[in-house]
Amino acid sequence: MTSPPPEQARPERAKVERAKVERVRVERVRVERVRVTGPPRRRTPGARTRDIDAETRLGEVYMGSLLREQLWLAVRVLAVLAGTVGSLPLAFHLWPGLTDVRLLGAPLPWLLLGVLVYPVLVLLGWRYVRRAERNEADFLELMSEVGE
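^ thats the sequence. predicted structure below, dont judge the formating
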């Protein structure tokens, strides 16, 4: 079986390519956009944050308490991080025999610093976010009690 001369093959290829392009254009036109909306969001009443917004002395006390609690939380999380992950290199320096230990064919420092660290970081991050959200929820509850 012989192929057609190159002059005849090119127009046929061009027709096929044009047909593909036209098909894609038609398919694109048929796509219908749908607007996705959620339920209306509840706005917090302005009475709750009036002292904060007006920058009164009482508002400063409220914000200061929230910021102190969030800072204390961050310091505790960093202390746990330094105590766990940060102490591993120090442990390997103080006990050089640990570097010779192999688990699953890999050196122990590689497994601890390259694999085990990530679940610890995820757990600390998850715990930090949950506690920070709880602090903010407690703050909003306090503000709603004051506003009533």
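The chain is about 70% helix and 5% strand.
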